[in-house]
């Protein structure tokens, strides 16, 4: 199985532009040898990369050897950006091979190693530059040349919101890094009543004794929540039988377990309004992953607490508040609280493992897999299932993902 992480790349409004795929077994995260060998690619990733990507734009780093060998069938040209290291002027055969890929429809990104030979980047659609490895003077010169050649710049290594704002002011085009998972730590007023109500609703989903009548009243008094519930329940993926038009009928139809999940998902989605949409996607993938791994470890049919651990894991970032204060406003179990506040308890290693995977920290990922007594491949299979579950949840009517160019 091919194990990889995906790292989002954003535009200036924090809308998703593409996912960079970082492979565990490739040199510096590049496409590994197993995916290059003759027509074996569709098999090994478990569900296959085609199923996982579903038309989203992907950026993959490849070696110069792969430029000659060709790209595996998992990747469609119009949906794929190929990243290569800077090419020297004397590497004419390599430049010609890269040009052939470009004519097939692939877009080209070149990792910038300054100074850059301008003749070698004329084939590039994008230049990738690590903001921590170049000076301001070099960046300005690079940007001037890129604008003149109609090449866009992807700034990488952005880990804080302050760095993101600096890159915005520098007028780069795209932005890559884990800054969107970091808190801003900005002075905040008290949470408005509407958000406190959503936080309370979110807390109810992890309460062992959920008050169904209270949940129903909350939905009936909020037009947005009612609309979202009815749209969800009438999605063909959820309900293939008949149309449901009342909140009471929808809640009865869903049943307690599915209702808990839906209420939690809708609550976290509404709380995330105004933030990068990818925050919600990461929360949902974490939730499903934690549920799948906990069910596998404990042989459970319902791993609802683990699901909540993943879903709540970015609540402090979403609301830019201290996690302890937020969890103090909702009723949650001690096991959920332990995982989120003290990084301890039965769910801690599960949550830590997906965080390690997201950041492509492969040594930590391997160690955590051993601690869970599961293989890295089993963990990654759960990750892929979680991504596909999230895709199915949103893909039908969503414009939130980076679609391939027509």
Protein described:
The chain is an alpha/beta fold. 49% of the residues lie in helices and 11% in strands. It has helices at 41-44, 49-53, 64-69, 92-103, 136-148, 161-169, 193-205, 212-220, 223-233, 247-271, 277-298, 304-312, 315-319, 323-327, 334-342, 348-358, 362-371, 376-395; strands at 4-10, 16-23, 58-61, 80-85, 107-111, 126-130, 152-156, 174-176. It has an 8-stranded mixed β-barrel with strand order 1-2-3-4-5-6-7-8.
Q: Could you give a short description of this structure?
A:
This protein is 49% helix and 11% strand. The chain has 406 residues and is an alpha/beta fold. It has an 8-stranded mixed β-barrel with strand order 1-2-3-4-5-6-7-8.
Features of this protein?
406 residues; alpha/beta; TIM Barrel; Hypothetical protein af1432; 2 domains; eight-stranded mixed β-barrel; 8 strands
Question: What is the secondary structure topology, with strand pairs?
Answer:
Layout: E1 4-10, E2 16-23, H1 41-44, H2 49-53, E3 58-61, H3 64-69, E4 80-85, H4 92-103, E5 107-111, E6 126-130, H5 136-148, E7 152-156, H6 161-169, E8 174-176, H7 193-205, H8 212-220, H9 223-233, H10 247-271, H11 277-298, H12 304-312, H13 315-319, H14 323-327, H15 334-342, H16 348-358, H17 362-371, H18 376-395
Parallel strand pairs: 2-3, 3-4, 4-5, 5-6, 6-7, 7-8
Antiparallel strand pairs: 1-2, 1-8
Helix pairs in contact: 7-10, 8-10, 9-10, 10-12, 11-12, 11-16, 11-18, 12-15, 16-17
